[in-house]
Amino acid sequence: MSDQFIAAFQSFARSEGIRTPDLGQPMALLAEALGRVSRLDPVERPNVPVVENHLTDSLEMAEGPVGDLLRSVLPDVGWAQPYPEHVGEPDMDALRAGYGYALIVGSLENSCRGDASPLYTSEEILAGAVLHGPRVAYPSHVHRATEVYWVASGTADWQKGDSWSRHGPGAAILHDTGVRHATVTGDEPTLLLFAWVTDPHSIPVIVRL
Length: 209
Known about the structure:
globular
């Protein structure tokens, strides 16, 4: 399709596949699927508190092509809180209070997890933005989807399997199918672009150890 954002996202995906060899296959899947998305009619765009409190500053600090992509599309998105099925659990309530996600590409089915609908429809991939507020822990979880995160602004600690590492702007983080992962932010919010390039309808499962 002819769309400035989608064309820029495709170009970014192809460049990432070259820049980071481990992302070659996931980025090929992403770029190909982006060529088959359809723009949806505009709908109401809901908001959540963490976005009202931190998005403006996070976007101003966003770096590189990821920052450019997010600045071009986020004015049009709606935001939601994840995991409504876990309301009442203290750690998940803390996550929901300091976390928002926006669907940019996906199925309308995926929007049932929150109140936001995607801008573009696809049954092949799921892509969007995530904003973590300061001092927010996303508990360890797994899913079937192959997932890539790109950090636009902020620094956080990331778990992959049994290992933890710290990543800031410019980082690309790959989670293969079934790999346990988690994220903990520090004193600053973290703004991310993400893509699920396989199994876009899979459901994340919180890992309780």
